[in-house]
Amino acid sequence: MKIYLLLLFIFLMASLVAPAQSEEWIKIGDKTIGFSEKTQHIKNIKGEKRQVSKIKLNSTQGNIKLTRLVVTYEDGSESEFKPKGTGIIPKGTSSLSWNLSKDKELTDIAMEYETIGNVVVSKRGKIEVWGKPWSRKKGD
User: Fold this and answer.
1) How far apart, in Å, are the Cα atoms of 39 and each of 3, 10, 67, 109?
2) How is the chain split into domains, by residue range?
């Protein structure tokens, strides 16, 4: 009897988690950044990559301290974001996500940052921008 209850519990938990994971993050773009640079842009974002409700940054090489993020939408309006917490994104980790304006397609992302770490080990950092697609309702 205990095994049946355990299996039922596992099945229920799996069915609750699956809908939450159905909307995957998509990679919008990436940049290789020099330690002497302070600003990077991802411009001319195309297709489904424009239709995201949230964005986050991922450092794949080097430690980066984000100081400001500006998102430009197709209508020319902008949203400015300050980093959450300290703004430091260590290698191999992601920032917390930012919510974007609803139903506005983005065209440009500007990142202002400071690089932290050992310039001798690596003269460049690498950062990726990820977006969570707009949630679609049935029938769209």
Assistant:
1) 57, 47, 10, 10
2) 24-133
Q: How far is CA 91 from CA 24, 61, 85, 136, in A?
A: 22, 5, 16, 33
CATH class of 24-133: mainly beta
Q: What is the pLDDT of residues 29-77, one digit of tens each?
A: 999 887 777 898 999 899 889 999 999 999 998 888 999 999 999 999 9
Q: What are the CA-CA distances from residue 114 to residues 12, 16, 87 (Å)? A: 45, 40, 10
pTM as predicted: 0.74
Tell me which residue of 45, 132, 133, 44 sits closest to 96, measured CA to CA.
Answer: 132
